[in-house]
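hey can u check if this looks right to u? its 261 residues, i copy pasted from the old doc so theres a chance i mangled smth
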Amino acid sequence: MTATGTFTPRPGAAPLPRMIRAQAALETRMLLRNGEQLLLTVLIPSLLLVLFSTVEVVDIGDAAGPGGEPVDFLAPGVLALAVLSTAFTGQAIATGFERRYGVLKRLGTSPLPRWALMAAKTCAVLVTEVLQVALLTAIAFALGWSPHGNPLSVALLLLLGTAAFSGLGLLMAGTLRAEATLAAANLVFILLLVGGGVIVPLDRFGGTGQDILGLLPVAALSDGLRDVLRDGAGLPAGDLAILAVWAVAGLGAAARFFRWE
């Protein structure tokens, strides 16, 4: 005989960690299946790394370090660009259109809170970034890159950079219309590619311009990665502090102002 209550429904939300894991797995599958985003997050950084390392499009000067090759300057910057393209540009555009098509509205009726959705999306971004970093590192090694420094310092920089860009991307996607998000995210990507110390050294913008641009998250991430990977420095405290401020501000504002519809 069947015991009493064996098939009694038990309505209620799943434990929060399980909800976040399930949503993160879904977000990761969706991200990896999106051809347009893979073009932005994988192909463009790879092409830029190969092109600017092999052809003197921009005069890097002594930014590569004593006796260094262009790839020694470019590889850390392109790693920062990869984080920017995935955590900010790609995520902002995808989330903006999810909001427009009512996907987020339906999620809003579920027990999943806003901050948990942002955490799941950030986890999906981190998975994609692991693949990006592995590919770009292999390409850079093939171009003659010789990195130095502590891998843990690199991981901390990438993690804080991801948190900063993810918060800013979700803030944009959760407050602007999808079309405005598409235009703004791509515009910001191009402007930061040129003026964020990724390809063009910041000292080309003069003293005041360099000081202002150095406060941008992509510039802090690029500079911090170069300090570690090119110069063998320890923890770049200044760059980490800038990224931490952007991460707290971006994620805090996104959690406060993100709209489901």
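The chain is about 70% helix and 0% strand.
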